[in-house]
## 1
Amino acid sequence: MAKTMTRATSLLVLTFLLLLLFLNSVSSWKRDEFRTCNQTPFCKRARSRKPGSCSLFATDVAINDGDLIAKLIPKKPREENGEDEQAQEDEPIKPLLLRLSAYQNGILRLKIDEDPSFDPPKKRFEVPDVILPEFHNKKLWLQSVSTEVIDGDSAPSSIVYLSDDYEAVLRHDPFVVYVRKKGGDLVLSMNSHGLFDFEQLRTKKKEGEDWEERFRGHTDTRPYGPQSISFDVSFYGADFVYGIPEHASSLALKPSRGPGVEDSEPYRLFNLDVFEYIHDSPFGIYGSIPFMISHGKARGTSGFFWLNAAEMQIDVMGSGWDAESGISLPSSQNRIDTLWMSEAGIVDAFFFVGPGPKDVVSQYASVTGTPAMPQHFATAYHQCRWNYRDEEDVENVDSKFDEFNIPYDVLWLDIEHTDGKKYFTWDRMLFPNPEEMQNKLAAKGRHMVTIVDPHIKRDESFHLHKEATKMGHYVKDATGKDYDGWCWPGSSSYPDMLNPEIRSWWAEKFSFQNYVGSTPSLYIWNDMNEPSVFNGPEVTMPRDALHYGGVEHRELHNAYGYYFHMATSNGLLKRGDGKDRPFVLSRAFFPGSQRYGAVWTGDNSADWDHLRVSVPMILTLGLTGISFSVEVLGGSMERVRREDLISGISPGRGVQPMIVTQPGYCLRSRNLEGDETWTLTEYSSRTMTRMYIELIIKERNDLSWRERNTELMRDAIHIRYMLLPYFYTLFREASSSGVPVVRPLWMEFPSDEATFSNDEAFMVGNSLLVQGIYTERAKHASVYLPGGQSWYDLRTGIAYEGGVTHKLKVLEESVPAFQKSGTIVPRKDRFRRSSTQMVNDPYTLVIALNSSLAAEGELYIDDGKSFEFEQGAYIHRHFLFSDGKLISSNIAPSTSGKMLFSSDCVVERIILLGNYPGAKSALIEPANHKAEVELGPLSLQGGRSPNVLTIRKPNVRITDDWTIKIL
Ligand SMILES: *[C@@H]1O[C@H](CO)[C@@H](O)[C@H](O)[C@H]1NC(C)=O
């Protein structure tokens, strides 16, 4: 994974790291490899602009093709701004074109670009293949525009319909775009502080004009001059803003400018391979999603998304920031102002009105897509390490899991399995029989993942390189030659994934015939796809490298990894004739990545700070569409921190929140040199954190220590496997609505202010709350449980009151986790070697009663691997407990009486939490037989609890309608 260093130098760097660690300043060594805002001319320029400096006004406003269009024209010659490089006064004044379109569900789209009738030197880049084709069918054809002078304004405004409750307004002079409730409160605005700026493309006229930029020995030729865009966006009725991953920072975004914020950087969105990134930092890392969400008690939730793939920088202004300089718009209570800056591209922005948190994520998903439904196995536990040496090593690890009675579903192979870092090949000395190796795992229901990165080794004997060269499939450098950069294999070139033909060519490489040694149980992992280039500026490709259609790398940089992920995922799809759901994990991402697979949060380190920040990082990814994400702990520095890891991030702690909560993913940790080790990495698919556990078998002679830790890990992983039916149901919800599997508390409790900035606890679906523990050897935890319901401890069944912060004792073997009253959670409690072997196992239903002794929940099941669910081949049940009766009913839409998917699974146990009074037995209808009822136990922990009631062996089929009445 994220190895920014070549192996040759890694020893050196490690030593260096060690040194720095002792100095306790790990962060400083890499910081100067990356640009700050001040070293980035467009960012520095945009940040220095004064509110009100935009002089554009809207003219020629009309309805055209169902959109509101206008021209933006500067009122006076461009401001003499001393800091502007190459003042543009002598350029003719060229208008910009503005287009506002309305879509279903209250979505406003705003585009601003250069006017083609003034012959710009080239077309600016508009990101293709991100917006869903279906989205275009949701356009509302605007018929009319009303123009009026809104109270307090001196100039007219044009108003168009957005939904029954909302309307969009274009204020003409100065130009401002905003969304408001009909005739009332504002939701979102753009340019209300007059910071909008749009640098138009230029061609060199004068000799000696120098637009080049230099950074650490790299020169960017910038043939079209500066071409950045910046503007302010305000969120009204907002208490906090969230989103814009990926940063290792808090869930609620801290101000990056304003009173009290010193020397702070804007949040940077620029996909970079940042080895051992620092926590609590706005620096850009592997992926970028320019989508921000605001939430407030008064107005609810809204969102703003800018589809733009160039480097972006975003400031969140603290309160008290120069607010007076804005244009006075009505209602500005609790406004949060932000400044958006991008190096290139166009304005293609979307305003989402909400008003609830789930509305906003669904509105965003209607533009960029919902997450793909993963294969069931992918939601279980994955095992990885860098590196599995050979087939024997793989076999050993595999059998250790069986010996220790720990289930796992996937084993991962990093780059060392290849022949000289040439992807799609095997080192035949170490892996002589890859098919046989995969088949052995497959016999236990297990899968394998191999790594395939975008850098292709420039080796004349490598067929892939020969073919790519011959066909002209590589990205070109600024002079038009195949770009040659340094990565794992040494000298490498990168396929131009922007080109759809090259993506199909790439996809073909995954056929069983082309990928020799692959079998149907093999899936793929894309690393280094930012793209990482060791000798490139900021460890990536030069901005003036050239892609398909003359697009400069600067324009699409943040989407390169997305297109690569897409091509790989399509390859797996083709390989299985479109029948098998792909599984591809990617490090780089962009809006839309959720349609192609999962992502992980890269190379962090095994310390408490990274464990802590993994929760907001994954919650943020979920909010911005990427519900299937994974966190790796212990990514890179185990050699240094082994002791910390063992004593600090003990399996009972670091690991538990993830395991309990996530559908698992794994990632690798490094092998400890010379030690006989094995590594368990739990990962959570979908939304959560991955967890990582390292068991050092020989490291400690203390046998009881080892056994104890093995037991803790086994328990944690068992809990995850028990919850797989619940997770899979949540994945289905995410893939139909965009609502993430793992959610910030405020998404479920949007009017409970105590939850708004809480990112230590989170919800798994609507039913489970997990409180992470982030300090070493904590004995107590303060847990806030949202009000309006009570909460049952997942292990003991003990009920806690909501609306209160509880100080709870915490044990080594668990983190606090609770089931919300009024919910029903489906489980499978029997342990197998892998999730695949649990298919026919019976279910347990856990009913957490609310104060009216009622609860409800859902269960979704399909074949776990094909796309037949899209034709209705699935089971979707609704469970309702009320008036002493549990009713199971179908909620899948009718498939004209035909059952396209069926299951023989039964319910073997029903657990009721919450003192159900006076139960003696249970009557099952329509079968008309009785089942036994007993007090306790709660099988997670054993012990009997007076407020737990168990209905034993009702043995009703999961596919059938039935009622169970407590007598
Ligand atoms: C309890 O749950 C039932 C079923 O969801 C619901 O209809 C009822 O309103 C809930 N009662 C309370 C007090 O929350």
## 2
Amino acid sequence: MNQLRISAKALAHNFWALKSRLSPSTKLIAVVKANAYGHGAVAVAKQLEALQTDYLAVAYVAEGQELREAGIQLPIMVFYPQIAHFKTLIDYRLEPVLYSKQTWHAFSELVQSTTAKYPVHIKYNTGLNRIGFLPEEANWVIANAAKSNMSLISVYSHLIESEGPRPHRASDKQINTFLEIKALHEKDTEQSPWFHLLNTSGVYNYPEQQLDAVRCGIGLYGFANHPEWDQSLQPIATLESVISQIHHIQKGETVGYDQGWVAPKDSVIATLPLGHADGIGRHFGKQKGTVCIGATKVPIVGNVCMDMLMIDVSNCKCQVGDTVQIFGNQQSAATLARQSETISYELLTGIGSRVFRIWEP
Ligand SMILES: *Cc1c(COP(=O)(O)O)cnc(C)c1O
């Protein structure tokens, strides 16, 4: 059976490891978007609530709705809400990030007549060119906030490459731009938002820019995009599968669709019930990716199928029913991700819903 075993202990370790790098007054916004990076949003959010994190963040409204329906009470900011979902967002007491004049107008209209000012967050685009108000629009935001029925809880931006070696010209430029935006907002006496700029790698690389809060996702799950920083964290998930069948094949026989692998000698092939529908994509096939049987690394051979993949176990004693580790203590998700030129984020968030999540206290 495929299972993603998740260690509550490791999650708590990472939470405290990140907190230990912050001054006591800096808030930690725990990012649980994309099903908590594939680990299971509700279970992760419940533990983060127990650990007394200050805030949760998700990408979309439906993700916040799922957490509210599961009873999560923490404030939840929604990074990338769509205008069409604003009504639902209000129904579930979620806090939108407004990132354009369009989103601003649409949301401020909806909350014009609410009794209390509605909490919102403002995102600035300081160079990533993905989403956000332009720095030049700061005065517009400040002037309109004064006339609105909204309370600016926080103002933030996002770095292009927070893990990149310092000095980093583009990041430094973004930091300067953001500090100018911050100064403008601070002149406004009506609103007193907090300010934030850093994700996980930023906490390690730019601790002096931690400002009032940081937004950590991948760090909670055990990675910080740098081998040295990773040392202070513990991957919280172990992905395991099991050998379903073993074949003894002769030199010249092929394995899998499109004859993806031709046996260079008589070989032993094991089949796992895990495929690209479970998040182990075709890019791991053809000997790019490895998996672990005990401490032995063996290659994935041929093309990964939707529900299965095959591994070459010619040099490794094993039998049907044996556990195979895809990532965990024998090989980290970051290492496996690198084998197919992707990153831990993509590998983790892609683990399919058929894989059982097992929460280990
Ligand atoms: C996903 C996200 C984060 C979290 O980044 P990590 O590198 O996972 O810590 C922070 N801020 C924003 C705006 C995000 O979209």
